[in-house]
Specification:
Strand order of the largest sheet: 1-2-8-7-3-4
Order of helices and strands: HHEEHHEHHEEHHHEEHE
Bound molecules: zinc ion
CATH architecture of the largest domain: 3-Layer(aba) Sandwich
Number of strands: 8
Number of domains: 2
Low-confidence stretches: 180-200
Structural class: alpha/beta
Radius of gyration: 19 Å
């Protein structure tokens, strides 16, 4: 009963905060995980979702060279990044409500830009089993569930946890050939390190190395037949966009399994909105 967890975890954390008063994760003001001023700042920073794919060099392109569109709720800095980190890694599940509202704005923005009104599945980026055990929940999936429960998603949009992180032994056995290429010794060393620790750490890797590093890390949660009748439209939903390598891998798995991936939605992107002067005439952006 995953919905029970969605209700129980925030309720427990509020009860915990009563017993052990907390402080604002941004400015350390006592009594709330996010004080009123920081909450308002976070809301202001996510009030205008924007297209963020222009700066993410690892995102997939279609046959016409168009980069997969990505809508970000805000820039990954200050209140948004601090709240997201506290929500994911420091047990501040009570921040889920504010973060979910920001994500809802980006989902609506992405869906408004779609041509037809066909149903869209929202596929959350999965966590590793170790991260799930450590946190007790999957952050992006929990945010989407909360939006679904509070009826804050656009009509026809439903969360669909279609992806999972493949177990470590599967990833070691079915490691892509590129990672074993001797000319990429540095990458292999890093990739092997990540495999052994079970972490898909990406720091210090270039765009193509990042794509190779995450290749084969994900699979479908349930086997499903391929075929025209079975095509479903979806948007990939993730927390932070950096180079887009993880989204590219999710796209590869979904696309090869009969999903039509329309784009992605993220809570935050490391690159700010592109100014009009900086926009190229074609290509990315
Ligand atoms: Zn504050």
């Amino acid at each position: 009963m995953p919905w029970l967890l969605d209700v129980a975890v925030p309720a427990f954390s509020q009860f915990w905060a009563l017993l052990f008063p907390t402080e604002c994760v941004c400015c350390q003001l006592p009594d709330a995980s996010l004080c009123r001023r920081c909450r308002q700042r976070l809301r202001r920073s996510t009030v205008r979702p924007y297209r963020a794919e222009y700066a993410a060099g690892s995102l997939p392109e279609d046959s016409a060279g168009r980069v997969l569109p990505v809508v970000a709720a805000g820039v990954y800095r200050r209140e948004l990044s601090l709240s997201l980190l506290a929500y994911k890694n420091r047990g501040h599940t009570d921040l889920g409500r504010t973060l979910a509202a920001a994500l809802a704005g980006a989902v609506h923005h992405a869906v408004d830009g779609l041509a037809d009104g066909a149903p869209v599945q929202l596929v959350p980026m999965p966590s590793t089993a170790a991260a799930r055990r450590r946190r007790g929940y999957e952050p992006v999936q929990a945010l989407l569930r909360q939006l679904h429960r509070r009826k804050m998603l656009p009509p026809g949009c439903n969360p669909a946890a279609a992806l999972r992180v493949r177990p470590l032994w599967v990833r070691i056995l079915f490691r892509p050939v590129g990672a074993l290429d001797p000319s990429r010794r540095q990458l292999t060393r890093q990739a092997t390190g990540h495999l052994l620790t079970g972490k898909a750490g990406q720091k210090g890797l270039g765009a193509s190395a990042r794509r190779t590093n995450v290749r084969g890390t994900m699979g479908l949660r349930h086997r499903r037949p391929r075929g025209g009748r079975d095509v479903r439209q979806c948007l990939i939903v993730d927390d932070v966009l950096t180079t887009g390598a993880t989204i590219a891998e999710a796209h590869r798995v979904l696309d090869s399994s009969g999903f039509k991936v329309l784009g992605a939605v993220v809570l935050a992107a490391t690159s700010p909105p592109q100014t009009d002067e900086a926009k190229p005439a074609g290509g990315r952006g």
